[in-house]
C-alpha cells in the first residue's frame, strides 16, 4: 500500500524504553518542540557540549554584525573578525572588561540586542543547570537477575535491591509489574501488564538491602510457567521504588526493568549479611549480584 506524503515525510526514530529499543514512525516532532525535556534528559557531556555549541554560535552571529559595521567598537586593531568575536563573548557573558566598547549608534544597538540575549540565555542556562542538579535521584542498586526459588515453603519470585548511599529512605514503597504478550478472543495480539502482589511492599527505613518477595500461587500470572513459557510470552518485569530521602528532604524514585532471559529459575541469592567478630553487621556487596543454584 502506498503511503501518503505526510507518512513518507514522518521521521523514523529508535527510542529506548527501559532496556528495550522501540522503533517509532509517523510522529513529526520538531527538535525544538520539547527542547526543555531534551536538555533535562541528555547526558552531562551532551548537555555541556550542546551549551558550548550554542554559546559559540551566538557569539559568532553577533560578531558578524559587529564586523560588517563601520568601526562600531573602539580599540579594535585592524578590525579583525576574531577581535569582534572576543568582544561579543565579553558582551554576551556580561563580563565587560572595558578595553573595547561600542563607539557608534550601530555598535550600541547591536550590543544592546546582544546584552538582552545574554541576560535571557544566562537565565535559561542557570535554570536548566539548577534543575538538573536539584532533581531528586535515588541511588538504588538492583540485582542483575531476579530469581525464582522456594522461600518459606512456597515458590517465590525474589528481587534484591540496596541503598548505595547508606542513608535513610523512610516510608520506602515498592511495586512490581509483570508484562506479557497475550492474544485476545478476537485473535488480536496484546501486551498486558499485571501488578504482582508483594509479601511486604513497604519498608519503614531503607538503609542497606531489601529483598522483594512475590509468592507464585494459583493467582499469580507466573503460576506454572517454566523458562520456555517465559520466552514464549515475552515476560518482562518492572520494579518501581519510591521513598522519602531524609538527607535531601525530597521524595526519590528508582526504576529497574528485566526481560525474561534475566530471570533465573531454580536459583537463590548468595548471602551478603553477616556479623564481624566484634558484633557489627557486615554487608558484602561483592556478592550482591551472585546467585546460586538450589
CATH superfamily of the largest domain: G protein-activated inward rectifier potassium channel 1
The CATH class of the largest domain is identified as Mainly Beta
DSSP helix fraction: 25-40%
Mean pLDDT: 87
Low-confidence spans: pLDDT under 50, at least 5 residues?
5-9
CATH topology of the largest domain: Immunoglobulin-like
Structural class: alpha+beta
Global geometry: elongated
The CATH level-2 architecture of the largest domain is identified as Sandwich
- Give the oligomer, counting copies of the same chain as homo and different chains as hetero: single chain
Question: How many runs of DSSP E, i.e. beta strands?
Answer: 16
Order of helices and strands, N to C? HEEHHHHEEEEEEEHEEEEEEE
Tell me about this structure:
By secondary structure, the chain is α+β, with helices and mostly antiparallel strands. It folds into two domains: 42-134, Helix Hairpins (Orthogonal Bundle); 140-293, Sandwich (Immunoglobulin-like), CATH 2.60.40.1400. 29% of the residues lie in helices and 33% in strands. It is built from six helices and 16 strands. The strands form five sheets. Strands 3, 4, 5, 9 and 12 form a five-stranded mixed β-sheet that branches. Strands 6, 7, 8, 10 and 11 form a five-stranded antiparallel β-sheet that branches. The longest helix has 30 residues, at 105-134. 19% of the residues are buried. Mean pLDDT is 87; it is low at 5-9.
Keywords:
33% strand; 5-stranded antiparallel β-sheet; Immunoglobulin-like; single chain; 16 strands; 294 residues; 5-stranded mixed β-sheet; elongated; Helix Hairpins; alpha+beta; 2 domains
